[in-house]
């Protein structure tokens, strides 16, 4: 790959990273292309060299965030416990920009164009497949994973913080972790 192609690829990757963070932090609709480009350290005018439109960027940024999360998920019982232990924390609750794309944007994406829903549906199906072929193990893992996502959405939604912590603690207990809410 030539230098200019390499630079273009690096710029595109920086745009995707910035968009992924901003979309999870503020929501897709609340973030403009200009804000993404600024966060990536580029000018708005350079956007068309990388993406046809904002929707293409949304699809790639959300797919990237989901792929990153799945790469960090282990599928064994111990792996799930480790994943859940870091998922159900104040840190994750307080920093959606670096957390689970499904908990950060699930409600918004459910109303997104079909292509965006398809992109994330594929990632969900990959994660389900990673849970294994055993129907009972798969159903258990899917139920526990869904509980994590739902708990994080509720924990971010409510006030006061004490209630948020109680939601996280209850979810931790439900999936078999110590109730103590970690920072």
From TrEMBL:
Keywords: DNA-binding, Transcription, Transcription regulation. Residues 9-69 form the HTH tetR-type domain. The keyword Endoplasmic reticulum does not apply. Residues 32-51 bind DNA. The keyword Transcription regulation applies. PROSITE patterns: HTH_TETR_2. This is TetR family transcriptional regulator.
């Amino acid at each position: 790959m030539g230098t200019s192609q390499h630079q273009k690829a690096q710029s595109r990757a920086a745009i995707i990273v910035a968009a992924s963070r901003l979309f999870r932090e503020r929501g897709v609709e609340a973030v403009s292309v200009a804000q993404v480009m600024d966060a990536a350290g580029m000018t708005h005018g350079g956007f068309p060299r990388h993406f046809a439109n904002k929707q293409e960027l949304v699809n790639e940024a959300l797919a990237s965030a989901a792929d990153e999360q799945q790469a960090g998920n282990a599928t064994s019982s111990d792996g799930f416990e480790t994943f859940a232990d870091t998922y159900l924390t104040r840190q994750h609750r307080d920093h959606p920009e670096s957390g689970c794309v499904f908990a950060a944007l699930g409600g918004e994406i459910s109303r997104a164009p079909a292509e965006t829903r398809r992109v994330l549906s594929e990632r969900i199906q990959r994660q389900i497949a990673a849970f294994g072929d055993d129907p009972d193990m798969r159903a258990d893992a899917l139920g526990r994973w869904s509980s994590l996502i739902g708990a994080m959405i509720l924990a971010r939604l409510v006030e006061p913080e004490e209630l948020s912590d109680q939601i996280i603690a209850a979810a931790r207990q439900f999936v078999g972790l110590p109730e103590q809410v970690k920072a």
